[in-house]
Amino acid sequence: MDSPAVLVPLDPREQPILDRLLRTRDALLLLKQDKSSYIKSRDVLPLYEEVIGQVETLNAVRKSQERDRRMPHTRLDYVLDDCFQLISLLFLTVGRNNEAPATLRKGLEPLSPELVKFHETLVSILRSTSAANTRSKFSSSEVSELQERLKEIQNNMKDGNFVGSDGQILGGQEAVKSLYERCWRWTEIVLERYTDPTSYSFKAKAKIPTEKAWSLRETDLFHFQRKLDRIDEARVNGNFLDATNQPADLHAQRTLLYLIRRSYAYIYALLIASEPVSEALLPIYNQLQTLRRCLLEVKDSGGVSNSRELYPYSMKLNSIDNMRIDGKFYIGNDIPEGQGSVNSLLAECYELAYDLRAAVVDEDKEDRGEE
Fold first, then answer.
1. What residue spans define the domains of the chain?
2. Are 273 and 214 in contact (CB under 8 A)?
3. What CA–CA distance (Å, rounded) separates 291 from 275?
4. How far is CA 223 from each of CA 80, 264, 367, rounded to the nearest angstrom?
5. Rounded to the nearest 10 degrees, what angle do helices 311-321 and 339-370 cross at?
6. Mean pLDDT of 334-346
7. What confidence tens digit (pLDDT) does each residue in 219-246 have?
8. For residue 273, which phi and psi values (nearest 5 degrees)?
9. Which domain of life is it from (predicted)?
10. Contacts of range 111-114, beta carbons closer than 8 Å, 24 or more positions apart
């Protein structure tokens, strides 16, 4: 397991907890790597309960020793984080999206309502500048236009401050002013690198192997997320070091940080795109999604000329419906999670097919009436 080099737990009472969590993490990793069978809820829940039990024990130990929350993380903290990450991904894999135990919270400095629009614009400018910087070719006018937008924001300042309609200085503007300065400096650096013929090209790319969407497990993302974690943790005092162990220049720092955050965003996007359906039911769910999309396209294109054209869709729907036993989809002797989502999608497909068939019957009646 790729983990950062950290010290052993400071308190000897934490060592047994670490040993048990290591065994639990190994069991979670084996479950993640096993592609011979579908992951089931009953395989994940006992491991989750083990982790929760160790967390309660750890809380009791650290509460008794009054451990400073600001102290550096020990190996136990990293292993515990690995366990929660794996359990969350396994919960997604079995379709229990709303029960994933690991959640994150992030507080934001409150901004005056009048400053929110400026803050959002500055964030957009910063991202656009970083995106242009990571492309092999971009137009300098693209960044110059971003600078013009920055000047427009500056014109809304009075004596270097953002003020409201009543002339009072708006609250939370320090964050906005700091972001404005970052954006302006970053656009200058990108333009300087673009116009300097002697500058070197520094570009790093985090590559994730492509897999077929239907074969990707949420747990497969754990490996890539941990790789990004190790790269991010390689920073010293927040800076990446160059070959001489000195902080790299600002252009390189910003470029690497942008690519790391963009890679994290890709992983997050893949996670939130996860359907609330067990991977055992995903083949059926994906077939129904394709069938629904086809029926909607037929409906949007004007329907069918006769009911015989709906025969392939009806036959596919009936073949999927015949897989149910007492209204449930079984995989072996198991009833996987996500039955409601699959049944709802099946019912929607039936309704679409019925509407298309009914439209053909109504047209036939009208034609006979005219005759």
1. 1-107, 108-199, 203-272, 279-370
2. no
3. 17
4. 16, 12, 63
5. 150
6. 82
7. 667 777 778 888 888 888 888 888 788 8
8. -80, -5
9. Eukaryota
10. 111/171, 111/172, 111/175, 111/176, 112/162, 112/164, 112/170, 112/171, 112/172, 112/173, 114/162, 114/164, 114/170
Cα gap 21→19, rounded to integer Å: 6
- 187 pLDDT exceeds 60? yes
Which tens digits make up the pLDDT trace of 104-124? 333 344 677 788 888 888 888
Evaluate if pTM is beyond 0.70. Answer: no
Is it the case that residue 199 has pLDDT exceeding 60? no
One-letter-per-residue 3-state SS of the chain: CCCCCCCCCCCHHHHHHHHHHHHHHHHHHHHHHCCCCCCCHHHHHHHHHHHHHHHHHHHHHHHHHCCCCCCCCCHHHHHHHHHHHHHHHHHHHCCCHHHCCCCCCCCCCCCCHHHHHHHHHHHHHHHHHHHHHHCCCCCHHHHHHHHHHHHHHHCCEECCEEECCCCCECCCHHHHHHHHHHHHHHHHHHHHHHHCCCCCCCCCCCCCCCCCHHHCCHHHHHHHHHHHHHHHHCCECCECECCCCCECCHHHHHHHHHHHHHHHHHHHHHHHCCCCCCCCCHHHHHHHHHHHHHHHHHHHCCCCCCHHHHHHHHHHHHHHHCCEECCEECECCECCCCHHHHHHHHHHHHHHHHHHHHHHHHHHHHHHHHC
Whose tokens are 């949420």? That residue is 218
Confidence of residue 202 (pLDDT cuts 50, 70, 90): very low
pLDDT for res 186: 81
- Tracing tokens 């002697």 back to the chain, one arrives at 198
The CA radius of gyration of the chain, in Å to the nearest whole number, is 28
